[in-house]
């Protein structure tokens, strides 16, 4: 019997880019399901719209760049970018915001830098930051209220479609409003924690449904860690540094947003497990990942507390993307067999 | 230097050595005031006035200024012309002057102007210097206007708004609304949009240059059959 002799290693990794990205997309589904159940169909429609736009713009720019279409399209990275943008955008965002954000993310933030694996910034967050900076009104008033907060059932599928494509003029009052994170920051300036909670926006319920969304993304993220698709370093460092900042600087909930709102509201968990861990734009060394994640956590707290924007995941991640190559250069691990790690920039580039 | 024909000088200024697209000089005003066509045109005209005037004067005194003090002398000349441009704008287009604000006096620091004075005007006679100044400024202005148009269309969905600031009340009706109820696209109005539009313009110029090069290569005479191959190995000393 002719045994085929191969040199080691004899096991091989079953993961391809395509499979990894598909798993990440699957892991976002619990979060998407919870959002849809609590906040209505808006985000679901956005995800579909953004995914379609992402794949279409990827195909368009690949053909302009004369790259093989099928090879790059089936790696699912464009699809994931689309899904993340869809999840990040407000549910009632007008359709053109989704189109602009996604097309910009794929064409400018990803393909103009050289395509998959060459983008220094997280494409989804570049797209999100673009529309957040450009259309502040639509981006802050298009958030849906959860069923419990508005006290009425969420909009039906057809009504939501109409709001997204025909404009918010057709939207009845009481369906959209500021997010709890945004509202708390503004209301706490004039009151105490108890008085803020009693306001109509909160209805006595701090997180307003967002805690379930975040727990669902946390669950999806833990699956990713279990499947070894992401490592624990970035999410843990980010959540720990955010908590520490909140406990040390913002312990007084009569003055600052409390820790529970920081951790379980807004895009915290989506950011920690799905956005900050982008293998291309994040730091890659183990120690670097800890620094990178901690930096995002600190920036997240700083921008949320003293900045003008309702949430800060996009800006925090983009700012740390800037720093990632630098962090990597100074956190190189020691190579086995070498006495010292080679840290810092190579002499030529100095 | 004197062998350069006026046509070459003009082509250099407008295309091959365009101050905005190739030399990347004067980027600060270029990016800051190109929010609309009228701002771009206003700054472009002011720059043109200064550049033509400074090239003319520098060329005039080129044989009388010692090398050691040439730069201070050039800067003095440029500053004088900038003051003139500023006063002219105050006299005739005061509102536009208010809009452009600090960027009119800042023309003094526009490297494109000092660059032309030092690289061209101080080594060439008057006529080529004036032509160089005019075409360089024209190339700069055209890029400014294209950028302004791009950002005005993308940012506000209109073009040629507020032209009355430069051309009198009759021009108020030149404004064309391209899209009804256009939501202001702040990114295009803010400076980052200018960087991006600028990058796209430079890319476009490089594409056109590449295409032209390809064409020129294709038009070269093909190698005649039977001609001998030249050995290319080894170094030709």
Automatic annotation (TrEMBL), chain A:
Top EC class, one word: translocase
GO terms, biological process: electron transport chain; transmembrane transport
Transmembrane segments: 20-49, 69-89, 125-145, 233-251, 257-277, 289-306, 312-330
Main location: membrane
Record-stated family: Belongs to the NqrB/RnfD family.
Function: Part of a membrane-bound complex that couples electron transfer with translocation of ions across the membrane.
Listed name of the protein: Ion-translocating oxidoreductase complex subunit D
Lineage: Bacteria, Pseudomonadati, Pseudomonadota, Gammaproteobacteria, Oceanospirillales
């Amino acid at each position: 019997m002719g045994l085929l002799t191969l040199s080691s290693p004899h096991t091989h990794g079953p993961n391809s880019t395509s499979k990894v990205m598909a798993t990440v997309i699957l892991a976002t589904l619990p979060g998407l399901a919870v959002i849809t159940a609590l906040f209505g169909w808006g985000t679901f429609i956005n995800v579909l719209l953004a995914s379609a736009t992402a794949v279409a713009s990827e195909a368009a720019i690949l053909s302009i760049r004369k790259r093989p279409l099928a090879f790059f399209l089936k790696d699912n990275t464009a699809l994931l970018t689309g899904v993340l943008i869809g999840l990040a955008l407000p549910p009632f965002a007008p359709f053109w915001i989704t189109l602009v954000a996604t097309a910009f993310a794929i064409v400018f933030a990803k393909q103009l830098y050289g395509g998959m694996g060459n983008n220094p910034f997280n494409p989804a967050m570049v797209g999100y930051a673009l529309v957040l900076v450009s259309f502040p009104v639509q981006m802050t008033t298009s958030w849906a209220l959860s069923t419990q907060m508005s006290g009425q059932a969420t909009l039906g599928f057809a009504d939501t479609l109409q709001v997204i494509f025909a404009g918010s003029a057709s939207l009845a009052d009481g369906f959209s409003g500021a997010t709890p994170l945004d509202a708390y920051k503004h209301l706490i300036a004039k009151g105490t924690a108890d008085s803020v909670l009693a306001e109509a926006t909160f209805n006595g319920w701090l997180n307003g449904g967002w805690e379930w969304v975040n727990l669902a993304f946390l669950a999806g993220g833990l699956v990713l860690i279990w499947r070894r698709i992401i490592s624990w370093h970035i999410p843990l460092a980010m959540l720990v540094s955010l908590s520490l900042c909140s406990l040390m600087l913002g312990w007084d909930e009569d003055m600052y947003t409390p820790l529970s709102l920081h951790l379980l509201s807004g895009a915290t968990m989506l950011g920690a497990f799905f956005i900050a861990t982008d293998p291309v734009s994040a730091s890659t060394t183990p120690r670097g990942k800890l620094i990178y994640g901690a930096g995002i956590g600190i920036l997240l707290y700083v921008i949320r507390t003293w900045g003008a924007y309702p949430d800060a995941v996009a800006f925090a991640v983009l700012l740390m993307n800037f720093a990632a190559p630098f962090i990597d250069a100074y956190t190189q691990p020691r190579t086995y067999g070498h006495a010292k790690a080679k840290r810092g920039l190579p002499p030529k580039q100095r | 230097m004197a062998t350069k024909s006026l046509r070459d000088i003009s082509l250099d200024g407008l295309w091959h050595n365009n101050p905005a697209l190739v030399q990347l000089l004067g980027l600060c005003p270029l990016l800051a005031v190109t929010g609309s066509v009228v701002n771009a045109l206003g700054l472009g005209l002011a720059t043109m006035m200064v550049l033509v005037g400074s090239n003319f004067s520098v060329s005039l005194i080129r044989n009388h200024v010692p090398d050691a003090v040439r730069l201070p002398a050039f800067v003095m000349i440029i500053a004088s012309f900038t003051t003139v441009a500023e006063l002219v704008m105050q006299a005739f287009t005061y509102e536009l002057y208010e809009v452009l604000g600090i960027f009119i006096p800042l023309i003094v620091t526009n490297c494109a102007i000092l660059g032309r004075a030092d690289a061209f005007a101080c080594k060439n006679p008057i006529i080529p210097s004036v032509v160089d100044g005019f075409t360089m400024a024209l190339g700069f202005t055209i890029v400014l206007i294209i950028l302004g148009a791009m950002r005005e269309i993308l940012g506000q969905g209109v073009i040629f708004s507020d032209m009355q600031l430069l051309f009198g009340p009759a021009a108020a009706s030149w404004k064309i609304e391209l899209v009804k109820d256009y939501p202001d696209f702040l990114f295009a109005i803010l400076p980052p949009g200018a960087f991006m539009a600028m990058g796209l313009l430079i890319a476009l110029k490089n594409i056109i240059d590449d295409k032209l090069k390809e064409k020129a290569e294709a038009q070269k005479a093909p190698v005649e059959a039977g001609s001998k191959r030249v050995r290319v190995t080894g170094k030709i000393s």
